[in-house]
Amino acid sequence: MGANIVKNQNDANPLEFCDLCFKQEKPNLCETYKNTFTKINSIHFSQQAKLDRILNKLQVMPRMVDRRWACTLDNSTRKEFLDSLWGIGVSVHTLDDHAKVLTRLYKPEIRKLGALDSIDLSTMDTWEEFDPKTRTWIQVKVGNKNEKSTAKVNLGNILKCTGVEGVRYHRTNRDSNGSMTLVPMEKRAAYNIMCTVAEPTVSHWRSDDLEKHVFIELKEMDNIPEEIFSFLSRLGSKDKRIPGTLIFENDDIELVRSVLSCIKINLEKSSEVVIIKSNDKHDDMILIKKITKERLQVLFDIIKEMGGMVESKEDHVVISGKRGSVKLTFSDDDKSVQDGNTIKISISALEDPSRFSEILLMVKKRLGLLDMSLESAIGRHWPILTDTDLQYVVQSAISWYNSNPFLAVKIISEHDKLDKVKEWHIKIKEGKTRSNLDTITLGKIIKRMESI
């Protein structure tokens, strides 16, 4: 693809299916997405200082993601980073480790279903039975017999019921009288059972013309356990230009293959080659005047603080530094992409501090701009336009208070943010709103600022 894709992390909790990985003790860091490591357990301050020095050497800036410390590496620095962690005694759970757990939990064996038998089903709902051979849902025909609504289904199989209450899952079993009955199940458990009765199948993957990426269509992975799909989503990425497809680094194909094989899906390479459409279509660009002024101003102000020069055009921005210049364009794509001297920025990245910092880091490295704390700069300049902005600004100030109270004051006092923060703090004290943030520390910051 020839581009550096900044991952847009989805809303799902990447740690949701790691519960079985941490039976004894959580590690310090977990690879929540490919090359993104998140702190999930406390790190001793002396180890944290060493970790900060390692990241500084690798020119990686940590940031807060969903109120957790996180850092994102690239493929070239990943191994050095992991080797350094062992040297300072910081434990880590990687996606490779997670794959090993999955392959121990899921075994590629087939549990045969029982014979067909009659079962009473409501005619008010739509019923479907899992087909182990095709791994799809087949509608169940419900008929009337002896004034009862019955159907023929396999013993031990999963049925999906769709009705006014939504979608529900059941497994067929026998009661004490030997009659077929339904056992309600959570979706997660139902899909785990489905993979044990499913028969072996083949899915296909495609490569791009440079053989740098692997493409697997989502339809090739229908009805697989949520634990497996979550892992694949964390390891791969998506691209708006190729909808309905997960994209993996070429080096990760064996990892993908091993995880899918434990649920009896064999990966085979397709002869078809994926051709990626160009990102440089003028029609995809968002005009500068249509971008929220306050969001764009944060980008401009911080780049100028780093020593860069900003020149705004009708549909792009030119940033200049001691190593030349880059062209910034904006689109409504899900991801931001760097390709040579052009960086195409997802407009949604201007509303997400963690993704915003990755854009700045990209520009800083490319142009050789001044080295500075992007985390503190973003906190100072970030506008409060939404409640999410407010939460971020307050959390930034609180996190800096102990180490740099002067900076904490600047974060909430600059760019017309103080009145909004104080109003929110008053509502907290009056019980008109609730928050999980450390409002006691926030009160100290406000009091300190007012005493200056």
Please name the defining characteristics of this protein.
452 residues; alpha+beta; Translation Initiation Factor Eif1; 5 domains; 6-stranded mixed sheet; globular; disordered N terminus
Spatial strand order of the main sheet? 1-22-23-21-20-19
Oligomer: single chain
Poorly predicted parts: 1-11
Label the overall shape.
globular
Q: Averaging pLDDT over every residue, what do you get?
A: 87
Total number of strands: 23
Question: How does the helix and strand content classify structurally?
Answer: alpha+beta
Fraction of residues in H or I helices: 25-40%
The number of domains is 5
Task: Please describe the biggest sheet, giving its number of strands, its sense, and whether it closes into a barrel.
Answer: 6 strands, mixed
Give the terminus-to-terminus CA distance. 54 Å
Radius of gyration, in Å, reads 26 Å
The fraction of residues assigned to DSSP E strands is 25-35%
| Tally of helical runs | 13
Secondary-structure map:
Elements lengths: L3 E3 L22 E5 L2 E4 L5 H13 L5 E3 L2 E5 L2 H14 L3 E2 L1 H11 L10 E5 L5 E6 L4 E4 L3 E3 L2 E7 L3 E6 L2 E9 L5 E6 L1 H11 L3 E8 L4 E5 L8 H10 L9 E5 L3 H9 L3 E10 L18 H13 L3 E4 L4 E5 L2 E8 L4 E4 L2 E5 L6 H15 L6 H8 L5 H15 L3 H9 L4 H12 L9 H13 L1
Parallel strand pairs: 2-6, 15-18, 21-23
Antiparallel strand pairs: 1-22, 2-3, 3-5, 4-5, 7-11, 8-9, 8-12, 10-11, 12-13, 13-14, 15-16, 16-17, 19-20, 20-21, 22-23
